[in-house]
Amino acid sequence: MSALVVLTAHHSKDMPLAFVKDLIQTASSKARKGRKWVDAQEGFGILGVICGPEVTYSQDNGWHFHQHLSVLVDGPTVFEIIAANGDAEKLREMVAKRTKAAGDWLAEAYKDKIRCAGGKVSDKHGCKVRIAHDAEDASDYTAKGSMAWEISGGYKDETKSDASLTPWDIANRAAEGDKFLYARWKEYEATMPGTRSCVVSAALAKKLGITVERDDEGDEPVLHENDDVVGRVVSPLWKRWMRHGLASTFLLRVEAGGEAGFADAVEKTNADSDVIGKEKDEETVATLLARLDVRREEETAAHLLRLERETVEWREAPKRERAAAEAYQHRFDMTATPASIALIAGERIRQRADAMGQRAVVAGIVGELAESYGVQIAESDALRAANAVPDWLREIEAIMPGRWLSDNESAALLRMAA
Predict the structure, then answer these.
(1) Long-range contact set of residues 174-182: C-beta below 8 Å, sequence gap at least 24
(2) Proportion of the chain in helix, strand, coil states, percent, rounded to 5
(3) Which of 98, 115, 270, 308 has its CA 20 to 30 A from that of 235?
């Protein structure tokens, strides 16, 4: 039999999804570890636990992260068979009572871990425990918590109202321009990747003879196949299928046909979508894809144009740097003597007037010139040359930075100004 348990905790709008998720997952994991859990497994005949997470968002209470646990309990014990004395209904009631007790024990252990972590959980509403009616009930319940159902749009009706939004409700409204829910989607997108669905305990895997992959985080082992990409579907087309209730149908077709049948699954689902779309007076899939191609071509052209501009700027950058370096060279016919180097240093210091007097700046300029010209001058000579110019020359340098003017050029500019 299976005890179906919902694990949740108090949450509010100011709590990030990552906080709520970590609080509940950690408490759930700790409740299923240690000596007490080993004793509970033996006492209740617990074979293992299948765990599936589910996430919704409430405009009033924020993120609601909860786990659906299916606590599988072994069949009748020898003592129960003897006590039932051939009464099948009595035997079933005894096993059901033990199964319910196993679920209740786990719920209480979980609530204790939540409170130890500083969280809050209601004794009345925090956890729910019931016995599965049959195998199908247990299977559906576990699948409800699996994020695979979030992908395929399953159980949408139960969270259809504005009071409780599924991640895809959030994504759709974000795509329609809701900035607040766009932020919530980005939060979901950042928090949920790597979250395991359909977590199967080691004891159960051993009992059923299935191989599981160990979780790197040290939690329960995980039962799932490696991710194999068999094909891709563009987002607007997938959204159309979701709107027409065809996402699950498509996934079933892919599961049946595999990679080889992926294209056929897409074609058949598109045909079904056209039938439904015609009833709703929507555009055909072919029109949708054609419109997407045009938009993609426009976006690609804009992207290429942007890359081209960036490439030109990148190629022109060295030229600009060389031009700036050449502009820094000085027009005079004299050898690289300490006196001429001092003049160059003086001009460079004046060009950095805001840094005038800072020893590190002066030392840097002197060092650059010594490396370029092979002539070392004293910093004091550079500062003296920087200050030994009339104001009119400073004004000309401000108008034409990067050039050291000869006396004839200076005189010509003064005559023009006059």
Answers:
(1) 175/239
(2) 60, 10, 30
(3) 308
Task: State how far the Cα of 201 lies from the Cα of 106, in Å rounded to an integer.
Answer: 14
DSSP string, 109-140: HHHHHHHHTT----TTTSEEEEE-SSHHHHHH
Helix (H) or strand (E) holding 80: helix 78-84
The pair of three-digit structure tokens given for residue 351, joined into one six-digit string: 């060009």
Contacts for 283 with CB less than 8 Å, ≥ 6 apart: 277, 291
Which of 399, 340, 328 is CA-nearest to residue 373?
Answer: 340
Q: Which of 343, 391, 345 is nearest to 370 (CA)?
A: 345
